[in-house]
Amino acid sequence: MSTRTQSTRPPAPRTGRGSSRTNATRYRVARWVGIGVLVALVVAVIAVVVRDPAATDRAPRAADGEVVAPSGVGPEGSIAVGDGPVTVTIYFDYLCPACGAFEQANGETLQQLLLAEDVTVDLRPIAFLDHLSEGTEYSTRSANALATVVDADPDHAWSFHRALYAHQPPEGVEGLTDDQLAGIAHDVGVPSEVTALFAEGRHEGWVAQQTTRAFASGVEGTPTILVDGKPFAGDPYEAGSLASVVGQPAP
């Protein structure tokens, strides 16, 4: 399970001794060296900002703090897929490796349970692993992409969700671009007029809101699996384990 982590304490500064004259000389040298380094850093930062637009920010997106929920979601942010009598709620982050393992183990089982109308899958995308995508905020952008599809083309939301895990990037890299996310969505049938909206980030404020709500409600990490509101008692990484929620044996 992927969980929130705390930052480590920085190392204590090193100290040393010497004569006052030597220390004064070192201070003067250090002062001028420090000024030179500071000037070099300022020049470098300016150069990066001018040469690399991504260094200033991502392309202009929805206004910070604006919360726009996708149409059709429940009052608590539920993205309901299917209409079966048993509800399987999944809290997930698209960058979470454990979530990818859960999808690999039980994605096809859920697909079959949906086709049999045995379950309703309640998708709850959250984004708390943005710091592991080299500044591109992949967790937020991918969740926003799903929300955009839910809003404008809900019939393809489930297939897009599964496709995102089929193309899941590892932690510690930039992740997929908005154009690559659009390509994945297009491959499962989402029209280009919908995928073109990904870069606007219209639902990113909603994603942030859902993330805060999830942790406030007691979610400690991802994936968190609930069956009819109660924690799933089985092994989420065992192939087909979710078949037990409707009384079927795992394959």
Automatic annotation (TrEMBL):
The keyword Cell wall biogenesis/degradation belongs to this UniProt entry's keyword annotation: no
Keyword terms of this UniProt record: Disulfide bond, Membrane, Oxidoreductase, Redox-active center, Signal, Transmembrane, Transmembrane helix
Signal peptide region: none
Domain of life of the native organism: Bacteria
Transmembrane segments: 29-50
Gene3D superfamilies in UniProt: Glutaredoxin
Annotated GO MF terms: oxidoreductase activity
Record-annotated Thioredoxin-like fold domain positions: 83-234
Region (Disordered): 1-22
One of the Pfam families matching this protein, by short name: Thioredoxin_4
Similarity annotation: Belongs to the thioredoxin family. DsbA subfamily.
Protein's recorded name: DsbA family protein
